[in-house]
Amino acid sequence: MEEVKxxxxxxxxxxxxxxxxxxGAGGFNASMLSEAxxxxxxxxxxxxxLKFLSFTGNLVATGLRGVLRELAKRRLFDVFVTTCGTLDxxxxxxxxxxxxxxxxxxxxxxxxxxxxxxxxVFLPHESYGLIIEEKMREFLVEIYEKGVREISSHELCxxxxxxxxxxxxxxxSCQRSGIPVxxxxxxxxxxxxxxxLFSQEHRDFRLNPLKDEQxxxxxxxxxxxxxxLVVGGGxxxxxxxxxxxxxxxxxxxxxxxxxGEYDGSLSxxxxxxxxxxxxxxxxxxxxxxxxxxxxxxxxxxxxxxxxL
Length: 308
Prior knowledge:
three-stranded antiparallel beta sheet, six-stranded parallel beta sheet
């Protein structure tokens, strides 16, 4: 057994040094966070490793949008896999502001005032549905007039990022860095609804998700090794580990989650469960960190940036 060591804080301490100390602190999830930092650094340092970043769209409604954008700008991951909410919030926030709110607001009153609540973030109607409808209409008319009749989610994200053309956009940064953004559930959100609505007036326009699956297949089978940072759960998490099983599982895996595993949910499943499915290799470096990603992810990314 190793002795528990006290954390020694100093003025101006780098995040990387703090996380290193957490390794020996015996501090419950602190030690898991420290291990996650070490795994991510090893994974990112492997140039031939295919690196996935999976995350849920709700995070893009928060300040984490800037953290995710920085990862795209620096191309520390090769593929982003996410939900339609990412497209919604990235597009909307490129043109309209969201606001800091509270978990304890009167939701009936917010409804009367035309404000959506996402946790403690407030989204006025004009900052979400209305602006998405307006901008998606402009975007879809433009690409349709250029001859686009069939499009995959990664092609859509690339074109939408180009069209947004703003430095604060995740999609724009991914497009600039050549990072494909795959959305396995592209119709589950405001952007997806606008795609459907446009198709009602343009019957020859359609989504083709099978082209996304072809891209995933090609990337997985060409990879010499494979790793993933999985933030949250749901379809974006499962899509990465589902494809990873076809090459024997991930070699590196870090899960950041607030979900419990007692109900058998995919979102709450720990990395160790994925080993039983062959989605993570038995010999892989892996860890599950429990905690709010708006806290844990910035710390881990700072750890990476300090060390690269």
